[in-house]
């Protein structure tokens, strides 16, 4: 089961796929820092450090042949609510078009992968009123793929709120043996009904997008919800950080954070401090009406991790109880645990690079889940043809 990964980052898609038997034969990213972490963990004999557009221009010479699966966790910058919302017209998220160009070249060379899996933020579904994702599906349909779109939140697997969209495209002759294909004569509601009971995997927003573009090559995987998550924020914390560590904030810095909280969040924090037992929460700074506000979360789940392009993008941990309050940033290792990454995974020595490594990566158990219930069954179907 050979796969190639575009926008490989530090290798968390690979981390999720290799655990179920996939073999990575080629990987690409433009970031030398991310490549360094990738190579530390997996070796670098198959890693190609280059701009994806240059890869697309020389795809026949660069890419290996007879690869079953392509994955692409392309940049979310122009699709994210926190970004410019330029969509696939943007310089960063628009790099998906380079991958689509590679697929067009591969079709001409009769060397298309049998599966393509794209991953991005939920904004992929709403960018330019949904036109960006529909144009992507249209291109894949023209290339002979059948497409399903799955919405998976990391919170189903780890204590991190991280909704993501996974677009899985399968060559039609294989898809017809495993997926429920939408045929032109099928009533939409009849075709969709079997899977309409999984709103956590396919939202009403997605349903409307598909319903208004029935002519494209749509198919559905029968993917179950994962088992109920039992882990909480407290399960990912590094408890061996001593109280006198410089990682813990000074009183002045803590007071500045408290000054950014509204009364409701301050009341929640005070209740934590008044308890005889220590408890934990996370704080994320957000702009509200042009003012930076510190918002406390105490439901045992961290907010969505981001890359540290500014101080406000780093997630803050609070520990409160017995009248005490401790505040520090989550560590890169805690970030990694929130992404479902094993503790033996080698992180960068530089803390900020560690945040970058994990902040825009994928949740490993989500990849494992999709591999088990979609990618591997498709591969097995292909062996029967």
From TrEMBL:
Active-site residues, as the UniProt record annotates them: 76
A GO biological process held by the record: DNA restriction-modification system
Catalytic activity line of the entry: a 2'-deoxycytidine in DNA + S-adenosyl-L-methionine = a 5-methyl-2'-deoxycytidine in DNA + S-adenosyl-L-homocysteine + H(+)
MF GO annotations: DNA (cytosine-5-)-methyltransferase activity
Alphabetized Gene3D superfamilies for the sequence: DNA Methylase, subunit A, domain 2, Vaccinia Virus protein VP39
UniProt similarity note: Belongs to the class I-like SAM-binding methyltransferase superfamily. C5-methyltransferase family.
PANTHER family (alphabetical): TRNA (CYTOSINE(38)-C(5))-METHYLTRANSFERASE
Name of the protein described by the UniProt record: DNA (cytosine-5-)-methyltransferase
Organism (species): Candidatus Pantoea gossypiicola
């Amino acid at each position: 089961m050979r796969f190639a990964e575009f926008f490989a980052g530090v290798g968390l898609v690979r981390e999720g796929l290799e655990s179920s038997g996939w073999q990575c034969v080629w990987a690409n990213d433009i970031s030398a820092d991310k490549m360094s972490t990738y190579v530390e963990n997996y070796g670098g004999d198959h890693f190609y450090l280059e701009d994806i557009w240059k890869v697309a221009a020389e795809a026949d010479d660069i890419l290996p042949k007879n690869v079953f699966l392509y994955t692409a966790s392309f940049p979310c910058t122009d699709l994210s609510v926190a970004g410019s919302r330029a969509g696939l017209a943007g310089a960063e998220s628009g790099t998906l078009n380079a991958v689509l160009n590679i697929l067009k070249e591969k079709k001409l060379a009769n060397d298309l992968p049998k599966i393509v899996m794209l991953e991005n933020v939920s904004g992929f579904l709403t960018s330019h009123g949904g036109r960006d994702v529909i144009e992507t599906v249209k291109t894949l349909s023209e290339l002979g793929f059948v497409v399903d779109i799955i919405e998976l939140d990391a919170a189903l697997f780890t204590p991190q709120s991280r909704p993501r969209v996974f677009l899985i495209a399968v060559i039609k002759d294989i898809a017809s043996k495993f997926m429920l294909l939408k045929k032109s004569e099928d009533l939409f509601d009849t075709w969709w009904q079997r899977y309409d009971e999984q709103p956590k995997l396919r939202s009403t927003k997605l349903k409307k997008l598909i319903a208004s573009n029935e002519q494209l090559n749509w198919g559905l995987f029968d993917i179950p919800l994962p088992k109920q998550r039992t882990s909480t924020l407290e399960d990912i914390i590094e408890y061996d950080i001593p109280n006198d560590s410089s990682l813990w904030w000074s009183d002045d810095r803590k007071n500045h954070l408290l000054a950014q909280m509204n009364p409701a969040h301050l009341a929640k924090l005070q209740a934590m401090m008044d308890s005889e037992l220590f408890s934990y929460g996370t704080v994320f700074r957000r702009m509200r009406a042009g003012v930076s506000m510190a918002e406390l979360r105490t439901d045992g789940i961290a907010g969505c991790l981001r890359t540290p392009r500014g101080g406000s993008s780093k997630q803050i941990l609070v520990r409160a109880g017995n009248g005490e309050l401790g505040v520090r940033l989550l560590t890169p290792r805690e970030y990694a645990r929130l992404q479902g990454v094993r503790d033996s995974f080698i992180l960068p020595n530089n803390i900020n690079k560690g945040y970058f490594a994990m902040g825009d990566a994928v949740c490993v158990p989500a990849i494992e889940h999709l591999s088990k219930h979609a990618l591997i069954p498709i591969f097995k179907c292909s062996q029967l043809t």
